[in-house]
Amino acid sequence: MNFELQRLALNAADDPGGRWLFEGGHLLENGNQVGQYASTLRVVFGGTDAQNVAMLTMTLLFAGAQPPESMTIQGVHSFNTGDESGSVSAASLQFAPFIGHNFTRFQNTVNID
Q: For residues 54 and 82, is the Cβ–Cβ distance under 8 A?
């Protein structure tokens, strides 16, 4: 399963423990918008910054159903390469069979095995 992410927003915020990076936008499949996505990166000062990675949580919300079908991905973002990897950690009924499947992101392309 492959998707393209079309970013519409990118914001950063700091707190005493680290830095947050929030991203969101359109979720595309074969050039057609099928939903929205929201991604959060968290760097904990003295923790993940020493490894040059951020903790990642991304939710894919698919249009068409009420409430929307969704998948949540958890993993890491490498500041060395810009790549993200992890696995599907939760999903609505339609996407439940993908829980535990690997996830990779390179630039704006997401692949779920």
A: no
Strand partners, 78: 53
* Residue recorded with tokens 């949540």: 72
**Which residue spans within 1-113 are E strands per DSSP?**
2-15, 18-29, 32-44, 53-62, 69-78, 84-91, 102-106, 109-112
Q: Residue for token digits 């074969």? A: 30
pLDDT tens for each residue of 47-95: 555 677 889 999 999 998 888 899 999 999 988 888 999 999 999 999 9
* pTM confidence score: 0.88
**Could you give the CA distance from residue 84 to residue 63 in angstroms, rounded to a whole number?**
24
Nearest to 29 by CA among 107, 106, 93, 108: 108
